[in-house]
């Protein structure tokens, strides 16, 4: 399965996916890593792994629509069948999402539908939640609102801080994102009727 990974920063999810893919573990081939931030640390990781990289800077485009058109054009050159968002901090336009309908995944550091958007660890602490976690979901036009495919949970303890939660959630991310990719590559996962399906069963 040819994929493109979109990042904006550290790229730790991208690294884990690319490493497993390189070992032949995921039936997945990372064709390109694209960042909207030229300084994203993940770009260096991808280059060191000999994965083609692309940088597309939003400031060089007059508006969101033209950025997304350029994004589509660049990505099409690599013919990915799946777009994997891994810490990509930009909202995609409906046109972009429509071009890859049911073929864009995202990982979000909360137990969706709780805490869409930013600062999820802080909001979990403020709410006094007993558990927290991470979700992999299909991307739809609704921000962090597409159908959830897989979640991983962690308990929240009184000693937890944003940093400690972030670190533990990240470990979960690195476990579940590759698994979901493998399901997709195996043809076990689908997006249909606004729902995620695994092995023909609605999730
Ligand atoms: C992760 O926490 C992910 O859930 C969120 O952005 C972060 C990306 O981390 N969407 P990394 O760049 O993969 O290290």
Automatic annotation (TrEMBL):
Question: Where are the residues marked Raises pKa of active site His as a site?
Answer: 144
Claim: Transmembrane is one of the keywords in the record: no
EC code:
2.1.2.2
Residue ranges of domain Formyl transferase N-terminal in the record: 3-181
Q: Which residues of this UniProt protein bind N(1)-(5-phospho-beta-D-ribosyl)glycinamide?
A: 11-13
Active site residues per record = 108 (proton donor)
- Its domain of life reads Bacteria
Keywords, in A-Z order: Purine biosynthesis, Transferase
Q: Which residues cross the membrane?
A: none
UniProt-listed Gene3D superfamilies: Formyl transferase, N-terminal domain (3.40.50.170)
List the InterPro entries hit by this protein, alphabetically.
Answer: Formyl_transf_N, Formyl_transf_N_sf, GART, GART_AS
SUPFAM superfamilies cross-referenced by the UniProt entry: Formyltransferase
Residues at which (6R)-10-formyltetrahydrofolate binds = 64, 89-92, 106
Give the pathway listed in the UniProt entry for this protein: Purine metabolism; IMP biosynthesis via de novo pathway; N(2)-formyl-N(1)-(5-phospho-D-ribosyl)glycinamide from N(1)-(5-phospho-D-ribosyl)glycinamide (10-formyl THF route): step 1/1
Which reaction(s) does the protein catalyse, per the Swiss-Prot or TrEMBL entry?
Answer: N(1)-(5-phospho-beta-D-ribosyl)glycinamide + (6R)-10-formyltetrahydrofolate = N(2)-formyl-N(1)-(5-phospho-beta-D-ribosyl)glycinamide + (6S)-5,6,7,8-tetrahydrofolate + H(+)
Which molecular-function annotation in GO is an example for this chain? phosphoribosylglycinamide formyltransferase activity
If you read the UniProt record, what top EC class would you report for this enzyme, in one word?
transferase
Q: Which GO terms describe its biological process?
A: 'de novo' IMP biosynthetic process
Among Pfam families, the record links this protein to: Formyl_trans_N
Q: Answer yes or no on keyword Flavoprotein.
A: no
Q: Name one GO cellular component term.
A: cytosol
Family indicated by similarity? Belongs to the GART family.
Job description of the protein? Catalyzes the transfer of a formyl group from 10-formyltetrahydrofolate to 5-phospho-ribosyl-glycinamide (GAR), producing 5-phospho-ribosyl-N-formylglycinamide (FGAR) and tetrahydrofolate.
> NCBIfam families annotated for this entry?
PurN
Query: Can you name this protein?
Result: Phosphoribosylglycinamide formyltransferase
User: What lineage is this protein's organism placed in?
Assistant: Bacteria, Pseudomonadati, Pseudomonadota, Gammaproteobacteria, Steroidobacterales
């Amino acid at each position: 399965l040819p994929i493109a990974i979109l990042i904006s920063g550290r790229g730790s999810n991208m690294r884990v996916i690319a490493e497993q893919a390189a070992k032949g573990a995921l039936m997945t081939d990372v064709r390109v890593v694209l960042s909207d931030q030229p300084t994203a640390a993940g770009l260096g990781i991808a280059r060191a792994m000999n994965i083609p990289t692309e940088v597309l800077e939003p400031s060089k485009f007059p508006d969101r629509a033209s950025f997304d058109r350029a994004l589509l054009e660049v990505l099409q050159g690599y013919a990915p069948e799946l777009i994997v968002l891994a810490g990509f901090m930009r909202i995609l336009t409906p046109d972009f999402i429509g071009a890859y309908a049911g073929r864009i995944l995202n990982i979000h550091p909360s137990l969706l539908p709780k805490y869409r958007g930013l600062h999820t660890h802080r909001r979990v602490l403020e709410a006094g939640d007993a558990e927290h976690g991470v979700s992999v979901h299909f991307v739809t036009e609704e921000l962090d609102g597409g159908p959830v495919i897989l979640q991983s949970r962690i308990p929240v303890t009184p000693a937890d801080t944003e940093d400690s939660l972030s670190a533990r959630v990240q470990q979960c991310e690195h476990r579940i994102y590759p698994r979901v990719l493998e399901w997709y590559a195996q043809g076990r996962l689908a997006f249909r009727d606004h729902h995620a399906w695994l092995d023909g069963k609605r999730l």
